[in-house]
Specification:
Elements: E1 2-3, E2 6-7, H1 10-26, E3 31-33, E4 38-40, H2 41-50, H3 68-82
Antiparallel strand pairs: 1-2, 3-4
Helix pairs in contact: 1-3, 2-3
InterPro entries: CR_Ser/Thr_kinase, Kinase-like_dom_sf
Organism: Cinnamomum micranthum f. kanehirae
Protein name: Putative LRR receptor-like serine/threonine-protein kinase RKF3
Length: about 80
């Protein structure tokens, strides 16, 4: 099977899993549009993680769904899945 002229492989499944996780955790769509630029949710989340702001990826109100450590791991799994 081909996707965008590239074969579908396990890597694309892992990437897609990470993107969906980030969308669910952040409440944001795959493409974020701001006044000046457009971001992919993966790049936006990665920039927060690099700054040490892992939990800022989580949508407001979702932090009550579990311990901070667990939510932080969810974000890190999503980042590792969606970033090379």
């Amino acid at each position: 099977m081909m996707l965008l002229n590239m074969p579908c492989m396990e890597k694309s499944d892992v990437y897609s899993f990470g993107v969906v996780m980030l969308e669910l955790l952040s409440g944001k769509r795959r493409h974020l549009v701001q006044l000046v630029r457009s971001w992919l949710v993966t790049d936006w989340a990665w920039s927060l993680v690099r700054e040490g702001r892992v939990l800022d990826v989580i949508e407001d109100g979702m932090d009550e769904l579990g311990p901070r450590e667990v939510l932080e791991r969810y974000v890190l799994v999503a980042i590792l899945s969606s970033h090379p």
